[in-house]
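Changelog-adjacent note: as of this version, every example in the card shows the full chain rather than a window. The one below runs 106 residues end to end.
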Amino acid sequence: MTARAAASPNRLREFRLARRSTIDALAYEAEVGSTTVWRVENGRVLPNRATMRALAAALGESVDVLFPPEQPEPASDTGPTTSNGRAVNAAEARLPGGRGHGARLA
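Full-length structure tokens:
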């Protein structure tokens, strides 16, 4: 397992509870530690591929179903704007008495 936290939620708990299984029972079936299952379910760690495969096999699901691929965050297409939609750059927004002074940021 890697030490980095899971960036996106996984569905491990959802499928484990649907089977009315405990963390300990799933850990036993997947031949991993119960602490590992808890950490994965709670997003504390992102498991390596071998652990993902073991957990998926124990639940009778595919890795892609339990651990959906990360979806990139949509990039903001615009920055701050005034109430009339005009773009405000950072320098304008900080100028007291300047064009950006008092501008409402959307």
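Structural remarks: The two ends are 42 Å apart (CA to CA).
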